[in-house]
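Raw record, unedited: Methylthioribulose-1-phosphate dehydratase
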Amino acid sequence: MTAELARECVRFAQMGWMRGTSGNLSVVLQRDPLRLAVTVSGVDKGEITADDSVVIDVDGNAVDSDKVPSAEAALHARIAHVAGAGAVVHVHALATVVAAEHWPDGVVLKDLEMLKGFGRYDHEEVVIPVVRNSQDMLELGDAFEKGFDPLVPALLVARHGVYVWGDDLVQARHRLECLEWLLRFKVETRDIFTGRHS
């Protein structure tokens, strides 16, 4: 699992979505008690290795290790617990942050074929929730849970980034790639569709 975390980090770094040490990934190791492997803090995601992860508990604390988990580890654990996710991906793709800036009450997506890659039908109306950024993971977790929709496996954090989850890292990655495309389309066509899809 830890090697898989490293491979996915390098992939996202190459895409420009995990610049420098930003972003973090996690994968659930067991449910009861909840344990996740999460990337450690302060490591260049383009150079990360299988050793650069740590096991955390449901509160985001390291278990039997002196390694420092990502600052957002507690939110990963909260998402895994509430959504039943097997993996959580957090990146700083620019389109996701710009979309949250334009639609702070939630980004509406509809009539786009790529929604199928996000796990929804193209004719469905999907609202990606947006929450205000905070350094307090309990506050962010409460905001996530308040607006949680089990049919929408994503959360935009204003002026920060995006969280996407799935049954495993591959599904989470696929959903993220499709969501980034959808949000980029939404942002780049904002002026064209003003009043119709805004």
